[in-house]
Amino acid sequence: MHWGEDWKMALSRGLRCCQRVFSWIPVLIITAVVLWSYYAYVFELCLFTITNTLEKVAYLLVFHACFAMFSWTYWKSIFTPVAVPCKKFQLSYSDKQRYEMEERPDAQKQILVEIAKKLPISTRAQSGAIRFCDRCQVLKPDRCHHCSVCETCVLKMDHHCPWVNNCVGFSNYKFFLLFLAYSMLYCVFIATTVFRYFLKFWTGDLPNGPAKFHVLFLMFVALMFFISLMFLFSYHCWLVAKNRSTLEAFSAPVFIGGPDKNGFNVGMKRNMQQVFGEDVRQWFIPIFTSQGNGHYFPLKSQSSESQNPLLANEDLWEESDDGSEEGSLDVETQ
């Protein structure tokens, strides 16, 4: 019997390991395409095809600037750790014992309600109960969801993106948006500068050779990626303007008064500042400037911070039993 259980555990660990390995395949595909585009543009087009030195230098300078920003934002989207709920949202030892020993579902719900009174939680489950993750054993902060791929609860989770092999959420949503924007810019620059030589190869004005295949294919790939990225980027711009995540766009968050798809919409300017920060000069740089710590968000129904019961309750939430502050967290260190 023990042998059978050990075999199942070993099989489960093996499957998870394989899943982690295979999850990098989309990232490797994107990386391979980008590296090929670098070779095709820099060597086959600029160095081997373009004869005008000034044009060649100008193209290479702008191309490398676009390539650097694309690579930087892609790296940040992939390797920024997801932000997870802090310890204040975990059940204490005594609360956990009380919750697990209680067999009545209604009594368990009441225990969670009592604990949630000390926390800045406004959203509820579809049933109206406090949102609780049995796997992570935490009360879910507003806009937090459990990711089955990452196997953890993610603050302000938007979606799990296979192309970055990471959850897109509070800690890296700005980086993901910039990644989409700079990817579009990268494709647009390649397409516009390659177009003239694409026509020359197509009409036979330039001799056949290895460069012809690379230039023709580069044009098609740049246009194909640009069109798909344009739709995705436009959709996420709409989400930012409405202050919704992808999950909230499909299923409206539930508050005490019921579902409200615009519950976190506090106006376009403030919505954008929540993601990008107040300093416009830092909006286009992949450094973390999002407002807050991902655990609570201003609500549409609250016109100012002084009238916001979540923020008014912040002092109670942040102050622990020993007087230390654990509520605030540095996203970069998670």
UniProtKB/TrEMBL annotation:
It comes from Oryzias sinensis. Residues 315-334 have a biased composition (Acidic residues). Belongs to the DHHC palmitoyltransferase family. The DHHC domain is required for palmitoyltransferase activity. Its main location: membrane. It catalyses: L-cysteinyl-[protein] + hexadecanoyl-CoA = S-hexadecanoyl-L-cysteinyl-[protein] + CoA. It is found in: Membrane. It is a multi-pass membrane protein. The chain crosses the membrane at residues 21-41, 57-75, 175-199, 211-235. The keyword Transmembrane applies. One of its GO terms (molecular function) is protein-cysteine S-palmitoyltransferase activity. It comes from the Eukaryota. One of its GO terms (cellular component) is membrane. Signal peptide: none annotated. Its EC number is 2.3.1.225. This is Palmitoyltransferase. Residues 302-334 are annotated as: Disordered. Residues 130-250 form the Palmitoyltransferase DHHC domain. InterPro entries: Palmitoyltrfase_DHHC, PFA4/ZDH16/20/ERF2-like. Keywords: Acyltransferase, Membrane, Transferase, Transmembrane, Transmembrane helix.
